[in-house]
Amino acid sequence: MLEVEGISGGYGSAQALRDVSVDVGDGEIVTLVGPTGAGKSTFVNIIAGLHRAWSGSVTFDGQDLTALRPARVCQQGVVIVPEGRRLFADLTVTDNLDIGAYHPAARAHRDDTYEWVCSIFPILAERRNQRAGNLSGGEQQMVAIGRALMARPRLLLLDEPSLGLAPVIVETIFEVIRNINETGTSILIVEQNVVEALELASRAYVLEDGRIVRHGDASELLEDESLQKAYFGM
Predict the structure, then answer these.
(1) Residues 18 and 133 in one domain
(2) Residue numbers of the domain that contains 123
(3) How many CA atoms lie within 13 A of 188 on its CB side?
(4) Pair 230, 185 in one domain
């Protein structure tokens, strides 16, 4: 489904990624884990078209996405939930969700998708007329995920979905991500919360200093002693 080959990139003269290759199969949950500053957000932003790669390619179902603008990437079925949510704080929950259904194919199914999103996150139906900026952090993350789902993605990119959230809310968010995957949506999740991410995914990549240093079955990486020492404090 998604094939990212030899991606290098950065900002100005500062290189953040060095020859990174990742793939996501149809119906998979794949996670990219690593420390702060490893280049995780740069990588997922390149896939979404928010940042240009210096070299390498991004292909989705045979379609070259490497040079496409974000709106075109979204139309191809690849949608990002960005780090920090990036909601329109002065708009209502419903208005924020509607923004996700801006392209014609998604707009045609707007009502059905809206009902589905509210069934996943019932609190959003209760808060539909409230300003997004007045919601709690967990509720804002629900809006951000819901907005992405309004675009009817085939591949959902999640950039640090647990960032700044209480553990009980993180548990809820990860359970929702699992449920979304069960509907057939493939997922690539970028996370610092290594344990939660590896427990959720089927396969995983470890990114350090802009390079993939490990990859394989997520459950096996979760049991790896070197990763336990590096990330779990064991």
Answers:
(1) no
(2) 83-152
(3) 27
(4) yes
Closest C-alpha among 16, 23, 20 to residue 6 = 20
Contacts of 102 (CB under 8 A, 6+ apart): 151
How many distinct structural domains can be found in the chain? 2
> What percent of the chain shows pLDDT beyond 70?
98
139 sits in which H/E element? helix 137-149
Same-domain check for residues 33 and 64: yes
| Residue 65: how many other CB atoms lie within 10 Å | 20
Burial pattern 204-224, b for ≥16 Cβ within 10 A else e, equals: bbbbeebebebbeebeebbee
Ramachandran class of 13: left when φ > 0, alpha when ψ lies in -120 to 50, beta otherwise: alpha
E strands of 92-139, at which residues?
none
DSSP reduced 3-state for 138: helix
Q: How far apart are CA 65 and CA 195, in angstroms?
A: 31
Token representation of residue 123: 């609190």
86-144: pLDDT as tens digits: 999 999 999 999 999 999 999 999 999 999 999 999 999 999 999 999 999 999 999 99
Q: What is the CATH number of the domain that holds 62?
A: 3.40.50.300
CA–CA dist 189, 83 (Å, integer): 11
- Same domain membership, residue 140 and residue 118: yes
Domain end call among 152, 176, 198? 152
